Amino acid sequence: MIPSWLWAVTIVVVVLVYTLESIYAIRHPHVVPFKEAVTWVSIYVTAAISFGIGLWIFMGADLGLEFIAGYITELSLSVDNLFVFILIMASFSVPGMYVQMLLQLGIVGALILRFIFILIGAAAIERFSWMFFIFGGFLIFTAFKLVFKHGERDKAEDSGLVNFLEKRLPITSEYHDNKFSVKIDGKFMFTPMVIVVISLFMTDIVFALDSIPAIFGLTDEPYIVFTANAFALMGLRQMYFLLDGLLERLIYLSYGLAFILAFIGVKLTLHAIHEQGIDVPEISTMASLGVIIATLAITVVTSLRATRKVRAIPVVIGEELAEIKQYQAEKRNDK
Predict the structure, then answer these.
(1) How far does Cα 61 stand from its chain's mean position?
(2) Is 179 part of a structural domain of the chain?
(3) Which of 43, 127, 194, 293 is least surrounded by CB atoms within 10 angstroms?
(4) Which residues form the domain of 243?
(5) Tally of domains in the chain
(6) pLDDT band at residue 229 under the 50/70/90 scheme
(7) Could you give the CA distance from residue 142 to residue 134 in angstroms, rounded to a whole number?
(8) Full DSSP string of 241-308
């Protein structure tokens, strides 16, 4: 049982970090250079590892292992999510210097949504053990969807809500610095920034539906679920720029994530059967951690080897890759 004071301290620290990150991103709009991205990503990854070690030492090896496994899983899903963020930025032709501000707003939205989903998921699992069947089945379904949609990553297409807003709200055709609204000829109008943020928030909802069941398959402790998600999202803004040019080479990432989600789905299903009083073997957290790390390592190595001899990746993701390349060119021009 996690003491209330630890929950309070953790939430205060997380809110403080994200607040400072958001203030900095808004007040200092710029394309994050590689060195700055490496520095901050290293700081946040080191902080996450240190936190996991601290849990291991002071609260037991089980919680420490669950956090590390959850953190790696959530970070992997977040990296895949960056692909869709790139497409959103490209589809709305966001100027490079404002990308980090919009990313930070999307990340904060993701944290808030995941915290809400964590509370709902934890309450549901505590009352209904059969919810593990639902979570497990959902993850296996998501895994199959990832496999069959390999090479066809989710497009950053305008949703019905976005189309509705664009038709009914007064929106300028151009960006006006980092403002969300302006007055033109005495008329109040929104800028495209508003539509981009709404698109990011809607994407956050979809991603939360995948990530929360996945980590509940590794731990049933809400504190671990929350902290793993909080740390996984920290530094994601800088990682966006750090992985610029590398994301398009991870052509087998969807396969790796599909296997991990399917594995966790099976783990959840076995646990659900066990909760019904049927004696079945369960998969330990240590075994889960090993499978996750091995899968990601194989995925990254095979992806990089498959693309190392080509300067331009074959059209495995169609229009999406073209959009990404166009956006990257725009960012270089902004520099």
Answers:
(1) 26
(2) no
(3) 127
(4) 4-153+195-334
(5) 1
(6) very high
(7) 12
(8) HHTTTTGGG-TTHHHHHHHHHHHHHHHHHHHHHHHTT-------HHHHHHHHHHHHHHHHHHHHHHHT
